[in-house]
Amino acid sequence: MFSKTIGKLAICLSTLFISAWAFAQSSQTLGDLANNITGSMKDITNFLTAGAYVGGVCFFIVAIFQFKQHKENPQQNPLSKPMMILAMATALIFLPTFIGSISTTIFGSSSTSGGACGFQPGSSSS
Fold first, then answer.
1. Is there a contact between 92 and 55 (Cβ–Cβ < 8 Å)?
2. Which three-class secondary structure state does DSSP give residue 111?
3. What percent of the chain has a predicted confidence (pLDDT) above 90?
4. To pair with 99 at 20 to 30 A between CA atoms, which of 3, 72, 82, 92?
5. How high is the mean pLDDT of the chain?
6. CB neighbours of 25 closer than 8 A, spacing ≥ 6?
7. What is the four-CA torsion angle of 42, 92, 50, 115, rounded to 10 degrees?
8. 55 vs 58: CA distance, rounded Å
9. Residues 53, 93: contact at Cβ < 8 Å?
């Protein structure tokens, strides 16, 4: 047990030292590293936004079929199931807009970041 812990600690420390040495050998500054991370976050937020829209549309289609099943056999298919699926579809479709509105409400419109991709609703983006 103790030797496994020492081995894991040695691996973590060696990885940390190698990473620090590689960072010291490169010509990048800490600001460049932060800009690279921020740039990659834009792609992640775009992917999550697209996933929310696609998931919302899929849930909406499933809700339509559930409503049809409820109409055909109301005893086996309660109305609460398609209503909850429809609520999830609505939440997923409006999630990106909701996040932008909430960030404007909390941080104000004069802040430099907020919302998806660090952009404020109502401001011009290039």
1. yes
2. coil
3. 33
4. 82
5. 80
6. none
7. -20
8. 5
9. yes
Q: Show the tokens assigned to 72.
A: 């055909």
Pair 50, 97: CB distance under 8 Å: no
Q: Which residues contact 28 (CB under 8 A, 6 or more apart)?
A: none
Tokens of 4: 């496994």
Cβ neighbours for 99, distance < 8 A, ≥ 6 positions apart:
115, 116
Contact call for residues 116 and 96 (beta carbons, < 8 A): yes
Q: What angle do CA 80, 82, 83 make, to 5 degrees?
A: 60
Rounded distance between C-alpha atoms, residue 108 and residue 70, angstroms: 45
Q: Measuring CA to CA, which residue among 116, 105, 124, 101 is closest to residue 50? A: 116
What band does 111 get if pLDDT is binned at 50, 70 and 90? Answer: low
Please name the residue ranges forming H helices in the chain.
2-25, 30-72, 80-107
